[in-house]
Amino acid sequence: MPASDSFIVSAGENKDSPFAIAIMGPTATGKTDLAIELIKHFPCEIISVDSSLVYRGMDIGSAKPTAEELAIAPHHLINIRELDETYSAADFRNDCLAKMEDITSRGKIPLLVGGTMLYYKALQDGLSPLPSADEAIRKKLEADALSLGKEAMHERLKQVDPVAAERIHKNDPQRVQRALEVYEITGQPMTELWAQQESEKLKYNLIKIVLFPEDRAELHQRIELRFKKMVEQGFIDEVEDLKKYHHASLDLTSMRAVGYRQVLEYLDGQYDYQEMIDRGIYATRQLAKRQITWLRKEQNANFYDPATLSMEELLQNLKSSLSY
After folding, report:
1. What is the distance between the alpha carbons of residues 165 and 152, in angstroms, rounded to a whole number?
2. Closest CA to 125 of 68, 54, 196
3. Are 48 and 81 in contact (CB under 8 A)?
4. Residue 5 has what pLDDT?
5. Same domain for 119 and 209
6. Taking the mean position of all CA atoms in its chain, how far away is CA 132?
7. Same domain assignment for residues 245 and 208
8. Once rounded to an integer, what is the mean pLDDT over residues 230-251?
9. Residue range 242-258: average pLDDT?
10. 256 DSSP assignment
11. Residue 13 CA: distances (Å) to CA of 132, 292, 301
C-alpha cells in the first residue's frame, strides 16, 4: 500500500521529468470509473491501454466507454483500427508516446487506463531488441563448446563483446552462449542492444495505481455479472453484425479477444448458448488471472483493493505527489 500522504513514483530521467498517471488492474475492477473520477479533479487526458478498444465496432464486448462517458472523458487511442488491421505493442508505444508528448505540451497530465499488460511493458521499458533463439546457431555453439571448452568460448566472447565478457563469468556457459548467439544473429554485441533498450525507457515520472482485488471470489462474480450484462446489451447481435458486414472471423487478430472468440464460435454452431456463456466467463476469468500474475511483479506501484478503496485518500495522495 502507498504511504498515507503520497504515492510511490516510478522515476523518469530526473525529478523535473513530467508526470503521468496509470490506472492498471485486471478486467472488471472499475478502471474506467476511477479514471472518469480523476479527471474531475486533475487536468488529465485519458489514453486507452487496451488492445480491444483500438478496433471500430468492438464496443459491447470490449466494455468500451459509452458515448455518455466519452462525452465527459474523451479517450485517445480508441476506434483507430478496422477489424482486419493489426495493431502491435510497437504501434501502441509509438502512438502513446506521441499522445503523451502532445498532452504534456498543453500543460496537462497523461492518464493511462487499461489492462493490456504487454502495452504497459512496451511503454515503460521499450521493446526488447534481443532476438529469439536460433536453433541452428545454438546447436553449432553447443558443439563448439564441447570441442573447444568453456575457456575458449569465453575468449571468443571477449573478442566480440568485451563488456559482456567482463560481466559474465566463464563458468556460466549458458549466458556466454546466449551472448554469442545474439552476436551471431544480429552482428551486434548484446551490450549495445541492451544500451539501445535502456535509452527507450519511459522518461516520465509515472504514478501507477493498481486496482488489485484481494477477494478473488468477488472478482469472479463481477466478471460473471458483467459478461451476462454484455449479452443482455446485445453482444451477440454486435458480433453477428461484425460477421455480416465486416467479415469478422477467427482468422483476424481482433476477433481473438476474450468474449468475441466464444460468441463467434457459438454463431458458427460449435456449441449452444449456455456453453457460450460458460466459456466466455471462464475465458475472462483466465484473462484476469494472467493480468493479476503480471501485476504482482509490477514495481514502484501503488496497490489498492477496489472493494476498500478510499477515494478521499487516493485523491489526497495524488494531490501530494503532484503538488496540487
Report:
1. 12
2. 196
3. no
4. 56
5. yes
6. 20
7. yes
8. 97
9. 95
10. G
11. 29, 28, 18
Cα–Cα distance measured from residue 108 to residue 43, given in angstroms and rounded to the nearest whole number: 5
Reported as half-sphere exposure (CB side, CA atoms, 13 A), residue 8 has a value of: 14
The predicted structure's pLDDT at residue 147? 95
Closest Cα partner for 53 from 62, 40, 44? 62
| Closest of 61, 47, 23, 25 to residue 254, by C-alpha | 61
Q: How far apart are CA 259 and CA 280, in angstroms?
A: 5
Q: Residue 2 has what pLDDT?
A: 43
pLDDT at 295 over 90: yes
309 vs 31: CA distance, rounded Å: 12
User: Within a 10 A sphere around the Cβ of 59, how many other Cβ atoms?
Assistant: 22
Specify the pLDDT at position 131.
85
User: DSSP letter string over 56-120?
Assistant: TT--TTTTPPPHHHHHHS-EESSS-B-TTS---HHHHHHHHHHHHHHHHHTT-EEEEE---HHHH
Residue 161: which domain range? 135-199
- Beta carbons of 35 and 111 less than 8 angstroms apart: yes
CATH number of the domain where residue 171 is located: 1.10.20.140
117 and 33 within one domain: yes
Q: Are residues 229 and 179 located together in one domain of the fold? A: no
- Tell me, what's the pLDDT at 265? 97
**Closest to 319 measured CA to CA, from 215, 207, 218:** 207
Mean pLDDT is highest, among 87-91, 199-203, 231-235, for 231-235
Q: How far apart are CA 156 and CA 230, in angstroms?
A: 59
In a domain, 7, yes or no: no
Give the C-alpha separation, 280 to 228, whole Å: 9
What pLDDT does residue 103 have? 98
Specify the range with the lowest mean pLDDT, choosing from 35-49, 56-70, 126-140, 166-180: 126-140
Let me know whether 318 and 293 are in one domain: yes
Q: How many CA atoms lie within 13 A of 139 on its CB side?
A: 2
At residue 3, does pLDDT exceed 70?
no
> How remote is the C-alpha of 251 from its chain's centroid?
23
pLDDT of 188 strictly over 70 = yes
Write down the mean pLDDT value for the chain: 94
